[in-house]
Every structure is written in C-alpha cells, then in structure tokens.
Amino acid sequence: MSTRLSKGGRLIDRSKPLSFRFNGAPMRGFAGDSLAAALLANGQVLLGRSFKYHRPRGLIASGAEEPNALVNLGRNARVEPDQRVTTTELFDGLEATSQNHWPSLDFDIGAINNTFGKLFPAGFYYKTFMFPQIAWKYLFEPVIRRAAGLGTAAKEADPDRYEQAYAYCDVLVAGGGVAGLAAALAEAKAGKRVIVMEQTPVWGGRAPVDGGTIEGLAPAEWIDRTLDLLATYPNVRLMTRTMVAGLHNHGYAICYERVADHTPGDGRPRHRLWRVRAGVTVAATGAIERPLAFAGNDVPGVMLASAVRDYIVNWAVSPGDRVVIVTNNDDAYRTALAVLDAGLTVEAVVDARERAGGDLPQLVRARGVRVMEGRGIAGVMGHKAVTHVQVCSQAGEGGVTETLECDCVAMSGGWSPVVHIFSHVGGKLLWDEAGAMFRPDATRAPTGPDGSVLARAVGAANGHLTLDAIAAEAGLSAEVEPEAPLAPVWVMPAGAGQALRFKAFLDYQNDVKVSDVELAAREGYTSVEHTKRYTTLGMASDQGKLSNINGLAILSDSLGQPIPTTGTTTFRPPYTPISFGAMAGEARGDLFQPMRRTAMQDWHEAKGYHWEPVGFWRRPYCYPRGAESHRDAVNREITNARTNVGLLDASTLGKILVKGPDAGKFLDMMYTNMMSTLPVGKCRYGLMCNENGFLSDDGVVVRLSEDSWLCHTTSGGADRIHAHMEDWLQCEWWDWKVYTANLTEQYAQIAVVGPKARKLLEKLGGMDVSKEALPFMTWAEGTLAGFPVRVYRISFSGELSYEIAVPANMGAALWEALNTAGEDFGAMPYGTEALHVMRAEKGFIMIGDETDGTVIPQDLGLNWAISKKKADYLGKRAQERSFMVSPDRWRLVGLETLDGSVLPDGVYAVAEGNNANGQRNTQGRVTSSYYSPTLKKGIAMGLVLHGPERMGEILDFPADKGAVIKARIVDPCFYDKEGEKADA
Fold it and tell me: What's the predicted TM-score (pTM) here?
C-alpha cells in the first residue's frame, strides 16, 4: 500500500502541513506536494475510471503525460474538470473529486461495460447504432450524449480573472532541465535576449532524481549555481509554471503560465496566455518513459519506473512496500536502487533482455535483488490494486513460470524524446533503431521563409537520454553510470496470444488495447492516422504521450513493415490542455465583445435615440420626439433631409489606410475597378469580391497622395476587410511593399446632407465648399468652425452631401457646432433607417441586404464598376465560370406594389408549378423593402429571374394568411435618376 515515508522528500516542507479533501474524505499533505503525491501518501491508489470500460485506474506517471488521474478540482464556481493530479500543486483547502463513475468510485455501475468488453472492440461505434433508424433519436443519441465526457463543468460564472501578455526574444528555451539551462546560459553569454520557460514549479528536470555529477557537482548544486548565474544577466527571463504550448510559423509561440492555480483567490490572475515572437526556439523538453504492453498493465499500482522513483525521491512517498520492476533497459534499475534506499523491498527485476550485465544491474544485484533475465510479465493480478504478478519467458507465449507477490509494478519500456515543439512547424523526425525512438533530424529542422532555423532540440528531446550525453552536447562534463543497450519490446511476452493481447492496454484513458490496433490493421486501416481515429488511440486528453509509439509499433508489426514506414501521427499544439479562461483572457462579460462608441454617443443617448446593432457598434436607428412612433420619426427625418439638412453620425464606416510603393497595384487586385489610376484629390466607388467571385464589400476609395489611399468600408466590415487585406499581403503577396492600418476609430465622420447642406457649412466658415472648389466625388482638407477637417463630396442619400472627417477627440464638438449652426436651416439628425430608405430610393445597394454571399456584381447591374482594362482582380476568374455567366441568374430590379403597400422583407416571387418537395417554384426575392415618405408609397428592390428584361411585368408575392401581394418590376432607381441633386 502507498504511504508517506518518514524521511526524505527533496521538494516537500514538512513544517508546512496542508489539509485537503478527496471525494469528501479529509486528507493531509505538505507544502511542495503535488496532488498525486499527496493522494498516494494517504493510501489513495484508486483515482478514477477509464472512459469506455470504466476499469479502475490509478497513477501511471508523475508528470504531464499522466493519462488516468484526472479529477474535478474545486467546487461551485471554481470547479474545474479534467485536472491532472500529477501537475496540480497541493494547497490548503484543496477539494477534488474523481470522475466518470456512478454512483461512486469504488462501486461503478458503468463497469458492466468491462464485463461485455468483447462486444465493444475498436470501431464498434461505426458498426452499431445504425438501425432501427428511429432508435437513434430516442435511444442511442441520448445514451451516447450522457456517456460523453469525463468531468463536470461549473454552471456558475468563473470568479477568477485571466490575462494575456506579449513578449519577444532572440531565443525561447522550452524546458528548465540541465539541457535547457545550459542552452540558456550559452545564449545569454552571446548577448541574446533569452526567455526560459519551465512547465513545473521547479528547475532541473530529472537530473536531481536520477543522480550523477555535472562539472564535478551534484545535479542540484549545478542547477542552483546556473540559475544564480542566469539571474545576473539582464537579458534573461526565467519563468516557472509556464509551458510552451505550441510553436507556429515565423517563430510565434503560444505559452501558458499557471500563475495562481496553487494560490486561489489571492487576487492575481489565475492563468496567463503568452504570445511570444522568438528568433529561435530551443526544445529542451526532455523525454517520456514508455510503458510496456502486458496483460493487466492498467491495474492500479502499475506505474512507470521513473514515476516510482520520482514519488520516492521528490515527495517521500512509497507507491508500494513490495515492488516488482519490469524493464527492457538499464534506466529502470535506478528505480530499484531508489526503492531500496527508501527501505522498501524490490521483489525482483524482470528484465526482458537475455542478458542484463551492465553497471546498474550489477549494483542492484549487489544489494541482494534477484534479476530475472529473459523474462516478461504474463499478467498482473488484482482488481483495484496489484496483488501479484505472473512471470513468464519473454520469448514464449505467456506460460507462467513464477508468481510474485507485490503491491506495485514499476515498468519501463524505454524513452521517447518529446519532439512536439520541434514538429509543430514542420521539423522532421528520424527513427533511431538503437534507442527504439523517433528523434529530431537536425538536417531537416523547421525553417522560416528566409531559411533560418525556427527550432532546434537539445538534451533528451534530441535523443540524448543519459546525463553524460546531455552534458557533452552542451560542452560540459558529467559522470553517470553507463547503460547497456535496450531491447525493443512492444508486446510482453513476444508470443502473447489474443487473450493476453486483449488485456494489454496502450491508451489507458480510452481503453485502447493491443488487440484493437491489430484489429484495425486487419480491417484495412494501414495509415497510422486512420488507425488513430478508428481506435481512438492517442485521442484522449494526454494526446497519446504514453501510447502513440507503442501503438504505431504494434501497427507496424501487424502490417509487416518497419516502424519508420508507418510513421507518426501529427503533433499538434497545445502540448497539454490550456484553459478556456486563458484563451479568452479579459474578453468576457462586458469585454467579450466590447461595444464600440463613436465620439457622439453621449449626445445620441441624451436625445433618447433608438439604437440598432451594426457590427460591434450601436448606431442610432432614429430619434423619436415625444410620443412619436419610430416609423413617424424615420419619415420626419427623411423628409427633413430631402428638404432642409440632415446630420448623420457616419463615424462607424470603416477607414483603412493603404500606403506604399505597391499600394496601387494591391488595390487594383482588391477592387473590381482601377484604383491605381485614381487622381490625387478624387474619390471613386469600388467593389470588393472574395476569391469565389461573390461581392464582399463596397465603399468609396480616396486617393490621399501618390502612395496613399483611404478605403471606406461598411460599418460591420472594417475589421473583416482589414484582415482580408492582410491575409493576402502576408500569405500571397508578401513581397509587395504595402502597409495597411485600420483607422476607423481614429476619426469621427459626419454626413451633412440636404439642399441646405452647403449653406450650413458656409455659415461655419473656414474653407471653400462651393461646387467649383469642391465638385462631386472630390475631397479637400481645411478648417470648418476652427476644426481641422477632411471633407469628402460623396453621397449615399442622393442629396447634396458632404462627409466631414475630424480627429475623434474633436468629433463631439464639431457635431454640436453643426447642430447649433444648423438651427437656422432646420437641421436635425437622422438615423440608420432613414439612411437605408434614402439609399433605396436612389437604388443604391446595401451589403448584407442585396448581397448574401451568393451574389456577384453583375447580378446587381454593377458592370460599370468592373474594369475592362486590367487583367485580374480577386474573384475575376471565378466570375467567368459557367454558372456565374448564366443568363438565368437572378438580377436586381425595383419593385412597386400595385396598391402602394410595403412588401415583406425577404418574400419570394412565386412561379408556375411546384418543386420536388411540393413547394411553389420561385423566380425572385425581395432584398430591401421600405415605405418611402418621399414617394408616398412602398418601394422595394429584389433579385428576379431575367429581371431587367421584364420591366413592367407583375409578380405575385405570397404573404401571411394566404394573401398575395402583386408588384410591378420597375427601374431600381426611384428618385432623381439623373443625379442632379447630388451634383448640385
């Protein structure tokens, strides 16, 4: 039985006892304990249940590779599911509960699945739940959904806060063991900016546990001395509890700092997500010990040999009083020595190799321990804890030669370098036959666009598994017991039959066995990626850290091919899970999607405006007065803008600066028409399509100078279009000299609209706004009422219009000045609905109304805005596809109801006959529909089959309760078709 040892424990402070609870039971630990160590110290060997069979599960590992011991941590709002006990630091008051069982951990009804385990082999779900069809909805799906998942998420709001931070460095070192610290010191001495991140709370990796000397010092002494030296360098930053979760292109690393997991409620952010730009990343991430595949290798008490000595040396915890060690390599003998040094018993070392004659085995023999050469484990006896192991010949089929009593089995199948970070950005691996492992191929390291190396591996992550090899790579001297070669062992015993293979587990959490991988191979899943998905091997929350190499070796054997031919699955970030809180950071509650406010927002609110959401903005829909209805307010605002002067807060329109020697060429590709030929001082309406040819955005482009343009976008599209531009610049035209900046919130913009607009601006004074000085579709800079402004003569209403841009901090004052000066001219503000009606009266399209992701400019009669002079633009080739040039595409028209009523938005025009579903055939639909106070009737725009050729025809539009509204096809421009008013 596991227990706390009376002495030892290099990481614990016995003067600081801590209290915690597991499944409601009070337990005790010490400062420095991991939750795993504290549970073992309290005799808690059974910690959970496996996902599929609900088999009893205990600890296997001591670090991030642990697949079994996941718990719900905390309670109420602070409950966190699926927390790995091996990486959870113990703190006073910690509460943990086990997962995936009912009604209790000791008695789990779900364990009946294990009884019928042969009915649930790999891929059974692909062959089951198919019929009767009705059973899926009422039986299969509800049961599967209830069984899905392991832990229970909190239902209350998370009270903790989370942060995100940014950093840059020349060298990012992932891992604070001997190799990582040595690499950091070398780079620091070279004057590089260095950040060292260690996932655990302590430095040093395995060296302090495994022993040896470095530069004549004990590993712990060398580590302390190196840390002290690194601390003297101002160009070095040392970070514990921080994981390099993933490495991406251009040296972009995502890192995860667990700031206050061990001190909940202390006011600090719980987690911090780091985005780091690094010149090169050094992967000093160590190696992970592999388990051995033998029958019963999942019984609680069967652990990795390295984990057993970790618990003994680091936390003074005995995983068992009587230990059997089973191995294929010399390293496991260090565990035998650690067990003996703790005053415990090693019943035997079962070594699969025919001969174990190295220095380490001799040291163990000298301590009176029996070494059983050429032997394997036929089976482990016990249900919720180990009681016996059955020994057999490794070369045989599992015939039991001896039974050993024990309560802990320490297994070692060799080591696998942690190559994830090296592989995230395309680093290639090679198979090391002698070490039976994949390790980084330095000749095929990941590189950036300029050919520079993005990541390199050092130490155990580079395949150097002994302290002397790690030190030699770093230019240091070290001494450690030499190790004899291992013997690759993928199944124990080698000739194990199906009965034993059915009980030999590879993926402990998902219950994937040796027999499952062999079944996948027999059923034709020859790709390791297909096998992974068919069996769920490596798809648990540990992402196959313990199972993948063993699994692909079994698959290779089943397919009769070498392991490197089979290859590995894809290594994807993050290395271990990252909390959703860290990913969200401060983007929660009111900050999840912060409401954007224009400079005039306070004024709008004071006037009792009715708002509507437009992207992240809240724009005035209208400004009702007294008991006035919204419709009446809109009609009043339109009439006033058409007869006097209206003021519109247009600050939300996107404003993207595009600058550089290649800016004109770039905009010619972005827009359907030519922007490079636009003269300085002029404006031009432009259309932007996506690569599929569909209309994505529109707006006025302004030529500011020889190398600068300002692109106006829709209010909701500014961020999207800016990202669209950057995507093409960074990924396709990366060598073009173009700079873009989203200036949307840097400027307030006010539309002054109506026949008296010029008089209002002349009253403000400061610049010439006459037709001669500022003709339609031009712009000028100057002052109005003392404000520095940029004035555009553009119109979305069809009226004489000026759009005035001013620095955002002056927007409210200019707005006030316009309203005050405009009193003599009947000026009043108008909202977005008046804007929409007036643009529809003019037949102007609106992105999102006339477009829906399937509409091209030609559908809207905008051929005039498509240049015939240039060879290409985004979407051009797509628009030449047969479907895009079909004469049967629906095209834009105007619609007038015969009775003057307003057509419902989105209503379809029906055609003769029915489709295959019994529905009426359609020949068009309404895209925009309004009541026009200017025309005193309903008007609409719509897309209709052969619409422009059918002027005057009458269409039927079914409405509610069986009513049919008749409407005539007309020109989409209802007001001032010649454009005289806008050009006044």
Answer: 0.84
